[in-house]
Amino acid sequence: MLATVHIRGRRILCTPVICLFLFYLFILSSLARAEEVSSITLRDDDLASMKMISADWHYPTVWVGEDPCRWQGVICEIFTEGIFFTTTTKAVVSISLRGVCSAISEEDEENCVIGNNLGNLRNLRHVYLNGNGFHGEIPSSLSALKNLQSLYLNANKLSGTIPASLGNLQMLEKLYLNSNHLSGTIPGKLGDAQNLHQLELQQNNLGGTIPVELSKLRLLVQLDLNDNQLEGPIPAALGNLTALHRLHLGRNRLTGAIPPPLLGPGLPSLTVVDLSDNRLTGPVPFGICKMKNLAVFNADGNDLTGDAPRCQPVHGPHSDAENRRACREHLRGFCVTLPQVRTEL
To answer: Hydrolase: is it a keyword of this entry (predicted)?
Structure first.
């Protein structure tokens, strides 16, 4: 009689005795591998960088011990390098911390900065440093993190400008810099980070115009520039962001007409549009009548001509399906007043 054993994803047919023996060998090899993994040390440059970061952040009360891979909020992975002669080491791939600056006295609080040493962790993929009270500027050294996928620096006290070199991060998917004191303009270079899905820059002091280069971010799902001091027209090229779900441009100083490509069937996934409290003029483009997935639309506080529709999230901010139905009903009343519109609302 044959039995079946599954080892490392493979299904093996064998006699009960042979299956038992194979399973025993698998257990022994797994124990040996676990012992081998536990003995792998952190890469020397990562070890040095983590110790300098700990000193920069005055964080020894939580980061204790000689192995940073065991520190709170730090995740390491094993890497094997080389072809003929391989070496196996560990490297830091994720850092997630809150309240770093809260342990520092008020007179030293402004010295609590991110610092340049974080940019030396070349295998870092995820940085979650939101809500730490960091002061100072965003280090340009972060642009050396070629594997970085998530950068959360929101809800700090960061000042200065956004480093244009962040646009060199081709793996970056999520960039959260909102709720800081950032100034200057939005670098057009960010349009080169073409893997970006979420760009959150709201609640800062950013000025200048919205760079047309952002229209190159074809994978962008969410763009939030609310609560800044942005001026000039809304680039019509933002209508090329066909993957966009949520667009927030409210409470700025934007002028001119709402570009027709921004409100129409060319953005089939667009669910939320906030253009409120700007200086926009002209009518609402009638292409809005073709937007089947629109759930929230707010253009209040502008100088628009004619009746402007307003779709509120009457069913709550997380009930898109219900809000879509309510918005379609609201748009029906708006769109039947436009003789040039033929729609299947």
So the answer is: no
CA distance 97 to 186: 27
- Whether 12 maps to a domain, the answer reads yes
Element (H, E) at 334: helix 320-335
Residue-wise pLDDT for 49-64, tens only, equals 999 999 888 766 678 8
Q: 322 burial class (0-12, 13-18, 19+ CB within 10 angstroms)? A: middle
What is the domain range of residue 243?
170-177+193-345
- 123 in any annotated domain: no
Each residue of 186-196: pLDDT tens digit?
A: 999 999 999 99
Is 25 contained in some domain?
yes
Q: Is residue 29 part of a domain?
A: yes
CA-based angle 192:265:293, to the nearest 5? 95
pLDDT tens digits for 220-260?
999 999 999 999 999 999 999 999 999 999 999 999 999 99
Give the helix, strand, coil percentages of the chain, each rounded to 5: 30, 20, 50
